[in-house]
Every structure is written in C-alpha cells, then in structure tokens.
Amino acid sequence: MSQRMSVAELREIGQPPAVMGRRNSEHWAGSLYLRRLSIYLTWLLLPTRITANGVTWLMIWTGVASSAVLLWTSWWAVLLCALGLQLQILLDCSDGELARARGTTSPVGVYLDRIGHYLTEATLPIALGFHVSGGLGSLGGWTTVGALTGTVVLLNKSFGDLIHVARGYARLPLLSEDASVAAVRVGLLRRLRSLLKLAPFYRAFVALEFSLICLVAASIDAIVGGHDVLRGWAIAMLPLAVLLSAGHLAAILLSRRLTD
What is the model's pTM? Predict the structure, then answer.
C-alpha cells in the first residue's frame, strides 16, 4: 500500500458506511471521538511492517495491562486503567482500518478481537476485587466477589457469541444488524427492555464503562476519604452481572436471532 495515500482516501477504505453505521458493533466512544483519531494512527501504521493482527495483539495486551494496573491500590491506578482502555478502543478501531486498507481482513483477526474483549472484561472485576481488598497479596471476600463477577461476565459475553455458533450449526445466514431481529417478541418484556435502554446500566461491564464507573467511585472516595463508594460498587457488581446475564439470555431466546 502506497505511503502517499491521503488520510481522506484511507478514511474511505478504512471507515466505510457499512462499518461506521453498525448498530451493535461500534462502541459509542469510537463513534463519538476515537474514530476521528484512529484514522491518523492507521495512516502512520500503514507504511510500517506491523500487521493488522499485530495491532490486535497490542489491543489485547493493552486491555490486560489496563486491568492489571488495578492491582495497585491507588486512585492513580484507577485513572490509568480508564486511560488505558481508551487506548485499547483506539487500537481496536485501527486494526480493522488497517486490515481493510491492505485487504488483509480474516477470521483470525475477528477471533483475536473476541479474545481481547473477553480477557479485558473478565479480568477487570477480578482486578477490582484485589484493588478494594488491599492489593495482590490479599485474598478473601472481595477477591471472591471479583472472581465470581468475572465468571458471570464471561458467561454473559458467551451468550451473544453462541448465537453465531448456533446459527452456523443450523446453516443459517449471518445475523442481520436489523433491530427487528433483536426485538423481543413478548409485548410486556419488549416494553420493559425499551425502558431499560433509557438508563443503559446493561453496559456497566463493557470495559470502558466499567473503568469509568470505577473512576467516578474512586474519585468520590478520594474527596470524602475512605473506600466506601468503590467497595459499594464492588458489592453491587455481582448481583447486577447475574441480573444482566439472565436478562440477556431471555432477550435472545425471546427474539428472532436464532430463527431468522
């Protein structure tokens, strides 16, 4: 690929409407501001020897490192975690742009991308359990809650990906992004789901949102003193994760995602 490709030309290839208009696959931070930056990162990476999958590996390790920094029991650790996850999304945008610009998109890239998000979103609550318990050398109730929450988060994420597994076994086409396919067919539950979207706490365990919740809680603790707010979130996250997982499973089974 020529180094003379302009940013505008790269944007046409790397950020086509089919990608930017995805209903479920595009993170709000990407749409709001990170895609504006990622295209310049992709432009810088384009003449280098790094592959798109290499950028995905960077994304994976950035997410894991952002979780691991929470093992340090400091407000600065929570801030670094939130900033690191911004970088993870930036890399997550750039790897696909680079693959589309070079024509190297592949199932391997999709697979590595899924691994990155699974690892990050599962290790964040685990690391938070260590954070509120006193650090890596502490084991007890807080770390147990973190580990259980991480397990439930993994289970919840698998519910979404298992749709594609089931459709593959049934030889159904790729799942449509059409909102009508994901709509719950039971009227009362459909209205309840619409109301819940007004307060999107169902995104609480998406990596960036989780880190921002932690940052707000840790900042309040830093102002008032103590650790009560962040520990309150650590207590609440397990039942919330269980509730969201149950709701997610019900929404899948009561929609057309496994039939159309």
Answer: 0.86
